[in-house]
Design a protein that fits this description.
- Belongs to the membrane fusion protein (MFP) (TC 8.A.1) family.
- GO terms for molecular function: transmembrane transporter activity.
- Keywords: Coiled coil.
- The chain has 458 residues and is of the alpha+beta class.
- The chain folds into four domains: 133 residues, Beta Barrel (conserved putative lor/sdh protein from methanococcus maripaludis s2 fold), CATH 2.40.420.20; 49 residues, no CATH class; 90 residues, Helix hairpin bin (Helix Hairpins), CATH 1.10.287; 79 residues, Beta Barrel (Elongation Factor Tu (Ef-tu), domain 3).
- It is built from six helices and 23 strands.
- The strands form five sheets. Strands 4-13-16-15-14-17 form a six-stranded antiparallel barrel. It has a four-stranded antiparallel β-sheet with strand order 5-12-10-7, with no helix packed on it.
- Helix 2 runs antiparallel to helix 3.
């Protein structure tokens, strides 16, 4: 008669083995009931496992994308006039208000230009006064000639000459007025250039390190003196996959025709150290095209930054709610097991035996869960669905009325899976007792601790 032997690996580091002999012939179980009775008497020792009940709740599904920060307003600060830089007013890397003085260029030549144009304006005004006086004189002569022509005291030629002089004086006056306007424009241009010797902040923001030194000759066509970026609010650029954008178009969050945002959820920033920034941002625009090279769409968001903790150029992750799932079944992520390209979880049946349920993992979410010490802690939870049949149906067959009653094995699952496999073989060979059981204890959550290598390690 053939016998099947099953070797189980215990959960300790010495890798002890328990040899369980299932004394049932693969073809002769029915002929030898004594072998089955022998199997019943070979009991496996109870296995201690940590468990947490399955969760069933509606959860928000979140997605995250890599992004970078920049100013909502961002500009190179270039000189608009040439000259010698005589002063840098701001401190490198400081916050400057709109209109605040940043640099000063030697104003001497520009002040001289203002004075020159002011003199030209005065000359133009004097020319106008002279033209007006000449016009008044000619007009009086013409009025007098009108009276004299009637008495024959003057000839017609005298009258026509006076009329011609009047027209010339009127033209001279108009020319003088145009000269005044030209002089005023030249003076205004000179004043503008003089004012440009004082380089001011175009908006409130962070001014970077200056690229020019005091005493250096700079030109209007030269390099920027510094760069500025607004910092409150600050802008975040990130890219979303075309598939996710399509789902937003379908549910109406993004208007197909205008590209404008509808009821777009606020997003949060995850900083480089893993912390979540205290303020939430809003999406303000979406690019009109999907990138051919990356298959993504560029998004732009604004986020308040009143304490100026965020700076342009920082790398961040943008996280937002992308949907909800009603009555989702959740288990701790560490409870998932892998076997032959299949994923499964182990639950403790009412009779104390471990039972396997094949599952399909879904979204991973972070939820505040009982930590086993009377409190709660943010825990990585996995949404699961059944592969062969719905999970609630599988749990009912095991003996649970609802999913929340089922204790899921979080620690000790690999060994429990071995027990479950042995139990299945024993049942197949007619055993009715002696099955491997587990002793469930509440799962005590311990947050992962990152390990930093010693600087003295070789």
């Amino acid at each position: 008669m053939k016998h099947a032997s099953i070797i189980l690996l215990t959960n300790n580091m010495k890798a002890h083995y328990i040899l369980i002999a299932a004394l049932c012939g693969l073809a002769g179980c029915r002929e030898d009931n004594g072998a089955a009775d022998a199997a019943n008497r070979r009991e496996m020792p109870p296995l201690k496992v940590s468990v947490m009940n399955m969760e069933q709740r509606t959860v928000e599904l979140k997605s995250s994308w890599f992004g970078h920060l920049r100013g909502v307003e961002q500009a190179d600060i270039r000189p608009q006039v040439s000259g010698t830089l005589i002063r840098q007013v701001y401190w490198d890397g400081s916050i400057c208000n709109k209109g605040e003085l940043l640099f000063e260029i030697d104003p001497a030549t520009y002040q001289a230009a203002v004075d020159r144009e002011a003199a030209n304006l005065a000359t133009a005004r004097a020319v106008k006064l002279q033209a007006e006086a000449s016009l008044n004189r000619v007009q009086k002569d013409l009025d007098r000639y009108d009276k004299l022509i009637r008495t024959g005291a003057i000839s017609v030629k005298n009258l026509t000459d006076a009329q011609q002089n009047l027209k010339e004086m009127q033209a001279a006056l108009e020319e003088a007025e145009a000269g005044i306007k030209q002089a005023e424009a030249s003076l205004e241009n000179a004043r503008i250039n003089l004012d440009r010797t004082k380089v001011r902040a175009p908006f409130r923001g962070l001014a970077s390190k200056a690229t020019a030194s005091v005493g250096e000759l700079i030109s209007a066509s030269g390099s920027p003196l510094t760069t500025m970026s607004s910092i409150d609010p600050i802008r975040v650029d990130f890219s979303v996959t075309g598939k996710q954008v399509l789902s937003r178009l379908m549910d109406g969050t993004v208007n197909v025709k205008t590209g404008r945002m509808g009821d777009m959820p606020d997003f949060e920033l995850i900083l480089e150290d893993g912390s979540v920034f205290e303020k939430k941002g809003k999406v303000v625009s979406v690019d009109s095209e999907v990138s051919r090279s990356t298959g993504t769409v560029n998004f732009i968001g604004h986020i308040p930054n009143p304490d100026l903790k965020l700076r342009s150029g920082m790398a961040v992750r943008v996280r937002a709610v992308t949907g909800t799932e009603k009555d989702a079944l959740l288990v701790p992520a560490r409870a998932l097991l892998s076997s032959m390209n299949h994923r499964n979880i182990m639950v403790v049946a009412p009779d104390g035996t471990p039972r396997r349920i094949d599952v399909q993992p879904g979204e991973t979410v972070v939820l505040d869960m009982p930590d086993g010490k009377g409190g709660t802690a943010p825990m990585l939870m996995q949404i699961v669905t059944g592969t062969v049949k719905p999970i609630p149906e599988s749990l009912k067959e095991i003996g649970f009325g609802k999913p929340a009653d089922a204790p899921v094995i979080v620690e000790g699952g690999m060994m429990a899976a071995q027990y479950s496999k042995a139990n299945s073989l024993m049942r197949e060979h007619g055993a009715t007792e002696g099955f491997g059981t587990v002793v469930p204890v509440p799962f005590i959550y311990t947050a992962p601790v990152s390990t930093t290598p010693s600087v003295t390690a070789k």
